[in-house]
Amino acid sequence: MKTFCFVQSTRYRGVVPTRDHRLDRAKGILIFTVVLGHLLARTGPWDDEVLSAPMYLIYSFHMPAFVFLAGVTAKSTRLPERVLTFLVLLFTVLPLLWGWMWLVGLDPDYSFLTPFWYSWFLLSMACWIITVPFIERFPRTILVTSVVVGLFGGILPLLDTELSASRSMIFWPFFVVGKLYGKQILNWAGSLRIWQKLFFTAAALGTIGYFYLDEVDHHWLYGSLNFAHFGVSIPEGVGLRLIVDIGALLMTLMLLMWVGEKDNLIAKIGRHSLAVYVIHGFVVRGLEPLLDDIDEVLGSPLIFVICLALALLATYVLSWAPFERALRWYSSTVTRLLLAPFAPLRSKSGGHAETTTAQKPDSPTR
């Protein structure tokens, strides 16, 4: 692994490395599925044979894949800023979303211990980023630990939707794998031959087809509940969680196999996926009064087409660069203000680190 890193660093010496558009394109596709899934969810789709099919497809992998990609790009540098950025967005989104829902006549059903709706991802991201230095320092130990926690975390009766604990545990392995092996997996997936890609695609779709035909409880895909909510034994819970994770892994690999490398509109949307994620909730909740009873007026295929068109439009509009710039300026400004009182401590720590680094060459060779 050290040799690989050395080769990579010398390879680009004096040359600015180009951006990997495969990651951008994958994020662009995934953020679209997030918007589409949330729009479809307002129509009560899980009891409908037509609408439940795309819901199973989307929810089987879109967040695990997003977490995997977040691991690929995760860094341990400037850790306080990275963690605080997501917490700032979380504590900004929550009151604004509650107020927005009240304005449009919806019940926010808020709780101070439970991140509301899609905001769980912001809190979980902060938690996963904290683990990055440990992943880098103890890669194998953390990998095994994350898999065990992800599979067996549902045993704990007290950890559920509160503080996004269940999802943080269940999706953590995808983050760790993305951090440790994401780039290798991305390169491997892109190098496969057509027949190999078709084989993995069939395996992925076959797994999701099983979820759909067997009417597996869709709450397993959410990852937000412990085993007690499903009334299953520990072996059953672990087994079902493993099957769902395998389905998510296969679907993620399928995405990476076919994602392509071209820098186009999809890649641009992926580069601005944070703004789309944060803002789309307000759009979806604003449309909820219109979508709530739409099944009483229109048929399922037409409902899907309408949600598809709305998702395409919302994703395109919200990926407008000024939204992303404004969001990042706001979060970075607030983060900087929050960290300002600790600047003297951090500068001393940085100075100590520089001294230690400077003395390293004089230390005995191990």
UniProtKB/TrEMBL annotation:
InterPro entries: Acyl_transf_3_dom, Nod_factor_acetyltransferase. The keyword Membrane applies. The chain crosses the membrane at residues 28-44, 56-74, 86-105, 117-135, 142-159, 165-182, 194-213, 238-260, 272-291, 297-318. One of its GO terms (molecular function) is acyltransferase activity, transferring groups other than amino-acyl groups. Keywords: Membrane, Transmembrane, Transmembrane helix. Residues 21-320 form the Acyltransferase domain. This is Fucose 4-O-acetylase. It comes from Brevibacterium sandarakinum.
